[in-house]
Predict the structure of Citrate synthase.
Amino acid sequence: AIDINKLRDLTGAITMDPGYKNSGSCKSDITFLDGEEGILRYRGYAIEDLADKASFLEVSYLVIFGELPTRAQLEQFEADIRKYSLVNEEMKNIIDGFPKTAHPMGVLSSLTSALTAFNPKVVNVENESEMYEAIVKTMGKFLVLATWTFRKSSGYPLNYYDNTKGYVENFLRLMFELPTGPYTINPIVVDALDKLFILHADHEQNCSTSTVRMVGSSHAGLFASISAGVSALWGPLHGGANQAVLEMLEEIQKNGGDADKYLEKAKDKNDPFRLMGFGHRVYKNFDPRAKIIKKAADEVLATLGVNDPVLQIAKKLEESALVDEYFVSRKLYPNVDFYSGIIYRALGIPTDMFTVLFAIGRLPGWIAQWKEMRENKEPIGRPRQIYTGHPLRDFKPFEQR
Ligand code: ACO
């Protein structure tokens, strides 16, 4: 008889690729990314065109369903998102259980997972119409819950989706409207947020998206998979970088505002400090999103007339790093998070909500990747390892340890 363990030793060559720097985990029709050339396209459309000409919901439809919507399709999509934007009132009991100081990403991840309890059908999507319903429910409810994490921490009453307003306008209303009067929506702010959300909508197999696919590959359901994506995005090496950028800039300001001193600190290999918002795993020349967003940041700051010393420090860091040998030789350029943090601050968004805004933008990408993974009937994700621990040992009773 064949000894299956011996056979495994002989045939079981494992490719070691920590951080999956060079491993493909799936085939995908959604996003094309060329890190060397700085190219990003959703479903074949250049990110520059989409950011300039389309709305966030239009791009969401494109990313999720594969084609730009007709006017009627977009109206239907928006109407369905509106219809499902209500969340069960009992979700408020869960929100009440969190301390006011809780980080909004932790709260958002928990609330998204909790949605499963109130919408059990979303777990087991069996046909196209159930898939569609799961998608519009997620788009509607996630936006509302994302803003509720802020309302909770600020002590304001929770707002509901306004059927007369668009998705991005609703985000602003849900965040900032008070019972004392209507919130005036600034079209420049809506335009900047629309662009930011579009630039974040998908980015192929990054940490959070791969997490969504991995969790979804066990057929765990859309809400559970998105909740895991939110947790993955939270970390400072991923989506949490936009919050980390602002915290770094504030620290530099608190300590005298000397940007160059921090530039030197980031170069010191004995110092764990890294310049937040610089460098990217894939883009080694420039981040095409950073180019678009830098322009938007300049416009927003000029239009809103913001004169903020923290933002001056950002400008100084950017200028110095772009001509510094260390950063230039390692191809470390400002990434999308560097500029998004700056815009969010200028718009008056609280720092610990920055990563939540990233999550709102990334939601259509997570949904599209989950949908594709399910439709392609991908197998459960299950990487291997190389065991480096002890060989077989004899068990020792307490007296011998
Ligand atoms: N500041 C200083 N040095 C840096 C930085 C930085 N921000 N980023 C990379 N380096 C250096 C490394 O020390 C290393 O130097 P060495 O070759 O002398 O050892 C070299 O550049 C290569 O860096 P790696 O860590 O190998 O690059 P990797 O591709 O693994 O990491 C990452 C990419 C995580 C984005 C990194 O650049 C970083 O930590 N940046 C700061 C955090 C950040 O902005 N994250 C947001 C990423 S974008 C996003 O999630 C949307």
